[in-house]
From TrEMBL:
<dbReference type="InterPro" id="IPR010918">
    <property type="entry name" value="PurM-like_C_dom"/>
</dbReference>
<dbReference type="GO" id="GO:0004641">
    <property type="term" value="F:phosphoribosylformylglycinamidine cyclo-ligase activity"/>
</dbReference>
<comment type="pathway">
    <text>Purine metabolism; IMP biosynthesis via de novo pathway; 5-amino-1-(5-phospho-D-ribosyl)imidazole from N(2)-formyl-N(1)-(5-phospho-D-ribosyl)glycinamide: step 2/2.</text>
</comment>
<keyword id="KW-0547">Nucleotide-binding</keyword>
<feature type="domain" description="PurM-like C-terminal">
    <location>
        <begin position="170"/>
        <end position="326"/>
    </location>
</feature>
<keyword id="KW-0436">Ligase</keyword>
<keyword id="KW-0658">Purine biosynthesis</keyword>
<dbReference type="GO" id="GO:0005524">
    <property type="term" value="F:ATP binding"/>
</dbReference>
<dbReference type="InterPro" id="IPR004733">
    <property type="entry name" value="PurM_cligase"/>
</dbReference>
<dbReference type="GO" id="GO:0005829">
    <property type="term" value="C:cytosol"/>
</dbReference>
<dbReference type="Pfam" id="PF00586">
    <property type="entry name" value="AIRS"/>
</dbReference>
<dbReference type="Pfam" id="PF02769">
    <property type="entry name" value="AIRS_C"/>
</dbReference>
<comment type="similarity">
    <text>Belongs to the AIR synthase family.</text>
</comment>
<dbReference type="GO" id="GO:0046084">
    <property type="term" value="P:adenine biosynthetic process"/>
</dbReference>
<dbReference type="GO" id="GO:0006189">
    <property type="term" value="P:'de novo' IMP biosynthetic process"/>
</dbReference>
<dbReference type="GO" id="GO:0004637">
    <property type="term" value="F:phosphoribosylamine-glycine ligase activity"/>
</dbReference>
<dbReference type="InterPro" id="IPR036676">
    <property type="entry name" value="PurM-like_C_sf"/>
</dbReference>
Length: 330
């Protein structure tokens, strides 16, 4: 009896690692002290006076099932990186490095390499290094053809530059930065509504539209942090506006949102027309706003113009009022 007889092909695992190594190496900075293949990765964080490490972990969720059905695997890795680095960005952290975990029922080195190519692409966009990971072949636990992916990101920020919402005051303005679609949230509901992934939607298969990768906000927001005082930030993920925007508040504030201040992408209108109430939409999806900044009113116009100059749509979507109702959308 060999391990392969139990469903685990070690040789395919070696081949997957071989395909992945070059992708990871392209993401390395001079701070990476060793390469893929060691038992652990070494990273030099020198150059900071009083550094604080900021970490986050997340996965892609049931969006993966759409990738399997469409046989398109090269975007979900970007999603995995985005979900992690956007979270740590909320505290002003610059992503340093990323690790991924890929699990499956039967390993196909080519598919694994396509998934990790997305991870590497996401790391390049975020400016961090893919320094390690794990590929687990688990026959009998996952169905053949199914994969799961999760990631772990570590960033860094000077202690006196941490953004934690403590400076937010009544009258501050909320700026919304556009999303690329549903990102990686609400797909359990989407899959209940949209059965035919080959159906035409705005000139494309709707399955392809749903696989549009999550926007990585790092290259847009880090320059703003260096230039302006950003008081609070929120990554609009699961729980939509209602759960995520209040997470930036230290005190009892309400975010008053003007739902007519930004453009809602047609994919969300399609979902809503399928029978989902508006409040449920804002409680599940990002509705076209993937990241929110809280700033002084006097800075808002300039920040919006800077974001537009970087090619990213941005809108003044609301303001902060004292009182503990969380979010008011009107």
């Amino acid at each position: 009896m060999k391990y392969k007889d139990a469903g685990v092909n070690i040789e395919e695992g070696y081949r997957a690692v071989s395909l992945i190594k070059d992708m990871a190496r392209k993401t390395y900075s001079s701070r990476v002290l060793n390469g893929i293949g060691s038992f652990a990765a070494l990273y030099d964080i020198g150059g900071y006076k009083n550094p604080v490490l900021v970490s986050g972990t997340d996965g892609v969720g049931t969006k993966l099932e759409i990738a399997f059905k469409m046989k398109k695997y090269d975007t979900v890795g970007i999603d995995c990186v985005a979900m992690c680095v956007n979270d740590i960005l909320c505290h002003g952290a610059r992503p340093l490095f990323f690790l991924d975990y890929l699990a499956c029922g039967k390993l196909d080195a080519e598919v694994a390499a396509q998934i990790v190519s997305g991870v590497a692409k996401g790391c390049e966009i975020a400016g961090c290094s893919l320094i390690g990971g794990e590929t687990a072949e688990m026959p009998g636990f996952y169905k053949e053809g199914d994969y799961d992916i999760a990631g772990f990101a570590v960033g860094i920020v000077e202690r006196d530059r941490i953004i934690d919402g403590s400076k937010i005051t009544e009258g501050d303005v909320l700026i919304g930065i556009e999303s690329s679609g549903p990102h990686s949230n609400g797909y359990s509901l989407i899959r209940r509504i949209i059965k035919n992934l080959d159906a035409e939607f705005e000139g494309n298969k709707i399955g392809e539209v749903l696989l549009t990768p999550t926007t990585i906000y790092v290259p847009y927001v880090l320059p703003l942090i260096e230039k302006y005082e950003i008081k609070g930030m929120a990554h609009i993920t699961g729980g939509g506006f209602y759960e995520n925007i209040p997470r930036m508040f230290k005190e009892n504030f309400t975010a008053v949102i003007d739902k007519n201040s930004f453009k809602i992408p047609k994919i969300f209108e399609y979902i809503m027309d399928s029978g989902v109430e508006e409040r449920e939409m804002f409680n599940t999806f990002n509705m076209g706003i993937g990241f929110v900044l809280c700033v002084d009113k006097g800075l808002a116009k300039n920040i919006v113009e800077d974001l537009e100059g970087m090619g990213k749509g941005a809108y003044i979507i609301g303001h902060v009022e004292r009182g503990g109702d969380g979010v008011c959308i009107k």
